[in-house]
Amino acid sequence: MRPSIAKKIAIALLGWGIAIVMFFPIFWMFITGFKSEVDAVSTPPHLFFHPTLQSYAEVQSRANYWLFAMNSVIISVGGTVLALLLAIPAAYVMAFFPTHRTRGTLLWMLSTKMLPPVGVLIPIYLILRATGLLDTRTGLVLIYMLMNLPIVVWMLFTFFKEVPREILEAGRMDGAGRMGELRHVLMPLSLPGIASTGLLSLILCWNEAFWSLNLTSSRAAPLTAFIASFSSPEGLFFAKLSAASTLAVAPILIFGWLSQRQLVRGLTFGAVK
Amino acid sequence: MSTTIATPTPGRRFARKTSRSGVTLPLIAPAVVILLIWSIVPLVMTLWYSFQHYNLVDPTQTGFAGFDNYQYLLTDPDFWSSLINTLILVGGVLLITVCGGTLLAVLYDQDFFGRGVARLLVIAPFFVMPTVSALVWKNLMLHPIYGVVSSLLRGVGITPVDWFSQVPLLTVVGIVSWEWLPFAVLILLTAVQSLDHEQREAARMDGAGAIASFFYITLPHLRRAIGVVVMIEMIFLLTIFAEIIVTTSGGPGVATTNLAFLIYARALLQFDVGGGSAGGVIAIILANIVAFFLVRSFARNLEV
Q: Could you tell me if A224 and A74 are in contact, meaning their C-beta atoms sit under 8 angstroms apart?
C-alpha cells in the first residue's frame, strides 16, 4: 500500500510549514541585522529592504565582538576539555569495573545537576572573589567544568558500555596496563561517542547565561554578556540587537548543524539503541 | 606460604580487591572528589548564611538568626507564588515539548521533499543561547507595536496583545517551549527511526490504522526516550533564569518570578544574603525531592 499523492503533499506541506514557523524568529533576527534602524521598526514589517552593514559597524564600535567571542571560545573549550579529562577515566572505571557503589555514584552525580545554581551563587561568588578568580577565564573554565562534569560522565559511561568487553580483554592479554588499555584501545574505539559528548558540552558552555552574567564583568565576559549589554532599549535598537544576536549565535548554530548527527547519539543517554 | 594455602579464599579475595581498587581508584577519584567538593562546600556555606542575619547594605544586622530567615520566607506570599510559577513553568513546558515532540518526531520520520533541510530548521532553536531567544521574542516577535506577531494579528483584524503584561507566564512558557521543543524532536526522532519498520508494516497488514499503530507500537517504543527527555529537560527547566531576567525581570509584580529568580532578587537585588540563602536551601531541598523520584524511575532503566 503506497500512500496517495495527496497524502504525500499534505505531509510535505505540514513538515515545511512547521519548520518555517519554528525557524522564523531566527530568520527574522538574521535579516533585521541588515536593516537600517528605521526599516527595522516599520509597520507593517518589510521583508524587502535596502540591506546595510551599518548596524554591524555600530555594534563593533560599541563593544569589541572579537574579544567576547575569544572569551567564549576559550571558556567553552577549556571547560569541555577539562571535564573530558576528568570524566574519561572515571567513566572507564564505572563501565568496566563496576562495584556495588557504581550505580549509586552515577545517580548521585546526576542529582548534583539538579541543584539550582542560584542556590549556591553567593558562596561561589565569595570563593571566587577570595581566590582572585572573579572575572577571570580560569574561574569560568573551572565552573563550567564542574557544571558539565555529571552529564559528561553519564554520556561517556553509556558509550563505553557499548564497547564489547572482549576487545579490551584482548588488549589486556597483550600486556597493556589500565592506562594503556584506556588510551590505545578504548578511546580510539569510542571516539565518536567522546566527540558527541564534547560537542554537547561545548554547546552548553557557549549558551550558559547564569554564571557568565553573574561572575564576569569585563575581562572574561563571553558572548552572553555581550548580548546582555544590547538588551536595554536606547532609542531605536532593533537592528543593532539583531546584528549582535546574529554574531553571538552564528558560530554555535553552524557548528550545531554540522554536528547534529553526532550530537544526537550522545543526547539519548543510551535510551535509543 | 602454608598460611596462604590454609586460608586461600579470604586471603586471595582480599588481595584481589585491594589490587583492583588500587588500580581503579586513582582513575575515578578525581572526578568524584571534585564533584563532592563542588556539591558540598557551597551547600554548607549556603546553609550557614541561611541562619545568619546578613544584609550587604545593613551592616548593623549581624549574628545568628535562628529560623528567622526561613520563617520570613515561608510566610511570604511571594515565595508560594514563585513555587507555583515554577511548577507551571516546568509542567507547561514539559507538556508542550513532550506532546509536540512526539507528534513532530512521527511527522519528520515520514519521507517528503527536502526533509533533511526541514529538520535542520526545526532543531535550530536548540542551539540559540537563551538570552538571544528571549530578546528576539520579546522585541522582534512580540513587541506590541513593532513585533511581527502583532503585525500579523493586526493584519487579520485582531487587536494585538501586550504579551508580557497581559499573559506574562504563558508567554514565558511559550518562549521556553520554543527553545526545548527541538531537543525533544531530536531525541524522539532518533527513537522513532530505530523502530522496526517491518513491525509497523505487519501491524498495517493486520488492519491497524495509523492512529492505532501510533498508540500501540510507536508510543510504547518511545517510552524510554520520553523518560530521557523529561529528565534532561527537568534539570534545566527547574533552574530557568536567563529568559526571565531578560524578558520580564520576574514581573509584572511577581507574575513570572520562579524560585530561581526569587532567590536572585532577594540576594543580589535586595542584598539580603541571609534570606536569599534560606531560599537557596529550600530550592536545594525541593530539587533533591524531584531528583529522588526522577532518578529512581530512571535507575530502573539503568543497566550497570
A: no
Chain B residues in contact with A230 by the CB 8 A cut-off are 135
Q: Which of A66-80, A81-95, B86-100, B216-230 has the lowest mean pLDDT?
A: B216-230
Per-residue pLDDT tens digits for B132-142? 999 999 988 99
> Are B166 and B24 contained in the same domain?
no
Calculate the CA B245 to chain-centre distance.
Answer: 17
Question: Under an 8 A CB cutoff, do B127 and A115 touch?
Answer: no
- Phi, psi (degrees; rounded to nearest 5) at B259: -60, -40
Q: Touching check for A231 and chain B: CB below 8 Å?
A: yes
Give B-chain residues touching A245 at CB under 8 angstroms. 132, 135-136
**Whether pLDDT at B292 is above 80:** no
State the pLDDT at residue A16: 95
The answer to whether the Cβ–Cβ distance between A19 and B122 falls below 8 Å is yes
Q: Does B290 touch chain A (CB under 8 A)?
A: yes
ipTM of the complex: 0.85
What gap in Å lies between CA B281 and CA B287, rounded to an integer?
A: 10
Residues B111, B148: one domain? yes
User: Of all helices (H) and strands (E), which one includes residue B297?
Assistant: helix B273-299
Distances, alpha carbon B294 to alpha carbons A145, A158, B109, B129, B220, in Å: 24, 18, 29, 26, 19
Residue B63 domain flag: no
Cell numbers describing residue B151? 503585525
Q: What are phi and psi of B52, to 5 degrees?
A: -115, 150
B120 and B201: one domain?
A: yes
- Whether A115 sits inside 8 A of B39 (CB atoms) is yes
Residue B20, domain member (yes or no): yes
Which chain B residues are Cβ-neighbours of A107 within 8 angstroms? 295, 298-299, 302
Assigned C-alpha cell, A32? 533585521
Tell me how many domains chain B contains.
2
Q: Closest approach of chain B CAs to the CA of A118, in angstroms? A: 6
What confidence score (pLDDT) does residue B201 get?
75
Chain A residues within an 8 Å CB radius of B234: 114
Q: Please give the grid coordinates belonging to residue A54.
A: 551599518
For residue B38, give its domain range: 2-50
The 3-state DSSP class for residue B55 equals strand
Closest chain B residue to A22, measured at CA: B122
Using 50, 70 and 90 to split pLDDT, how confident is the model at B18? very low
Distance from CA of B5 to the nearest CA of A (A): 27
Q: Given an 8 Å threshold on Cβ–Cβ distance, is A22 in contact with B27?
A: no
With respect to residue B304, please indicate whether it lies within any of the assigned structural domains: no
Q: A65-229 — its CATH code?
A: 1.10.3720.10
Mean pLDDT over A226-255 rounds to: 83
Q: Are residues B203 and B255 in the same domain?
A: yes
Whole-number Å distance between alpha carbons of A124 and B265: 17
* Per-residue pLDDT at B7: 36
Residues B223 and B287 in one domain: yes
Chain A contact for B137, CB < 8 A?
yes
What pLDDT is recorded for position A137? 92
In chain A, which segments carry CATH 1.10.3720.10? 65-229
Within a domain: residue B62? no
